[in-house]
Amino acid sequence: MIFRRIRTHQVVIDVLIGLVVGLITLPFDLHANPFSLVITLGMAVALAFRRLSPATALSVAWATAAFEMLTLSTPQVSNLAICAVLYASAAYGSARVKWLGLGSVGIGAAIGMFYVTFAQLALFGVLHDVSSATDLVRLLLQIGITFLGFLALLGLPWVGGQLVRTRYAARESRDRQLVAEREAARAENVATQAEREAARAERDIAVEQERSRIARDMHDVVAHSLAVVIAQADGARYAYKADPDSVEENLGTIAATAREALVEVRVLLGQLRHSQGAAPQPVLGDLEKLVEQMTTAGLSIDLRSSGVPAQLGSNRQLAIYRIVQESLTNVLRHGDTTSSVDVLFDWRPDDLTIIIASTLRATTPLDSDALTTSGQYRPDERRGHGVVGMRERATLAGGTLTTHQAGGRFIVRANIPSTALTQEVRLR
User: Fold this and answer.
1) Which of 422, 214, 418 is nearest to 317 (CA)?
2) What's the confidence (pLDDT) of residue 383?
3) Strand, coil or helix: what is 128?
4) Per the UniProt record, which residue ranges are transmembrane (predicted)?
5) Which of 131, 159, 182 is the last residue of a domain?
6) pLDDT at residue 319 in the model
7) Are residue 170 and residue 289 in the same domain, yes or no?
8) Containing H/E element for 401?
9) What is the predicted pLDDT for the residue at 365?
């Protein structure tokens, strides 16, 4: 690129400087030779273009100097513009122009030394005086001093321009480094904020899962216990007239059920208040006690098992226990308690199928869960939490749960994997 991008006012200033320098030096140069006007104009143009186009300024300066030497003109004051051109070539020029400027320093010093020493001395007839060794030494010394003088005159501006160029490059590098550091800090802040948001989202999810778990457990405990208490209380009220002595047994069952419910509720409330380890949870071995408790409450339960039982994790055992507990509680609340409840555990090599079938009351549908005859929820009716909670437990255990009605019976069918290949989701 020949021309650099500089501000308009910089171009105007450079042109004015070239014009002023030309006007100032022209009166001193006119008396030297008839070509002074051309030489002064050339140096003024080079001075004006030194920042806009260092390559052009260097070319014009060389052309003007060559014209000056070819015409055997005496060096003029306007030649000092060459120093400014060499400075600009090192400070603002491209890498190629910069090194051309450095070459111009050496070549220009040699040519200037030759021109001043030989051409000018020959012109004025000085060389004929060199007739002895002393005169030769004096001449060589003069040549050396002249060369060093030109080298210093032309080299110092170029070195100054190189120093300015280095300072500008260091400043730009520092600015780029600062920008990169700011961008890195901003990216780090964004990443940190994203990590915080992700951690907060994980905490919210964990809290919501824990809240849902406690809600399920609270529903299972309270609904089951209250259903047993209500059934025993109703039974005691009806039996009081016929056999007052049997009331004591019913009241004992009510008290035992209420105490167990109170203990479990206290455990759940303790988990809400403190981050403690999970309390002992029911397992498959507790199903016999559950069946006995529900039988005492007035249900007739036919518990059967087929196949070879597999070893299940505590999480799946808890899910199965809660599903059976909720199903029997729903029968006690909404089903026909005079009919037998069939509970089947069908063990297979890879899974366990649990089927709980109960008879529906002729006058009371399952209003608590707002089910249709196909087992689907009515979206426009208030739903309970029983079937929803059972499905959640089955899903978290890696299985499925469906409900439907057939032949006046309500059937709950749960399928729980029993293989070790399925990862268990932690249920407490």
Assistant:
1) 418
2) 46
3) helix
4) 12-28, 34-53, 99-127, 139-159
5) 182
6) 87
7) no
8) strand 400-406
9) 47
